């Protein structure tokens, strides 16, 4: 039964494009003239429709939450979201999903980056595929910065419509959401508090443990400064997960010549098991993340790290009592070697008010015995 279901899904998924293509319910301002459909395609289409009906009948969450509320959206357009490899959370937000999947096929996609961000942050990731052309800046940059630390980034690499700032200069001046190409650079290069782990020291520690560092992921890496430093100083390739919260972080990382991954914290890392030498969690990983999300995240970090690889927790903050009772034990369950474990009071107003502390830790994954 399980295998049949998978085969069915594969069959349907590979045929879905032809289904869309043949479907006549799609609304388009200039509907193409009908072309005669060969018999074998019609038979195939009927099989696909029957299969999909079968599947959706056996998918209670999709039929109960998405079928009725927005009958304005042609069912065909949201079908891919029901059978494609997307998170079931998409169907927990039928209105957003319907808005996202309401577009005119084969034309330019609606400009809806906020809607996409909202869906992703609600766990609807990966987003369903669409058959429209995504917008790109109208005058793409004709040259790109030669360094990972350029004094400026080309503004023409971003569609600015949805932001109040219309340039990178404006973003770094107004610094609305910590948008700064040099953010945390000093704490990664100099030791000024016990929470700091300068890169030279980290690389030295790894070297003396015979643990070469070449590939990694920086979780919640903002504009990619950590990846930039690792590349520039040590030829280490870091992927940077980053969301576009109120600023074009993904574009900034890309314009620096680094790889942005547009994935939320609850998303499985799109890399294979045991392939990373280092995973770093920046300040985006903190007590505001639901505990269950965090637990799954740490186990996914463990999945992608190779034996002997490092988990670097950089300035994780939480209430002192929670670090002791909840987060410390959670991290401890990974069974990693504590190379560094430094806790210090968080002394900004919010930290003082809530009795918060920072944790900076470097943990090494053991090499498995089998
Ligand atoms: C990085 O790699 C390039 C090309 O292999 C080499 O020329 C450069 O010296 C390396 N830089 C560092 C910091 O290792
Ligand atoms: C940190 O804060 C706690 C409680 O707020 C206080 O008792 C402790 O002395 C502080 N530690 C340092 C090193 O300031």
UniProtKB/TrEMBL annotation:
The keyword S-adenosyl-L-methionine does not apply. Keywords: Signal. The keyword Signal applies. InterPro entries: Prob_Methyltransferase, SAM-dependent_MTases_sf. Residues 1-18 form the signal peptide. This is Methyltransferase type 11 domain-containing protein. It comes from Gossypium trilobum.
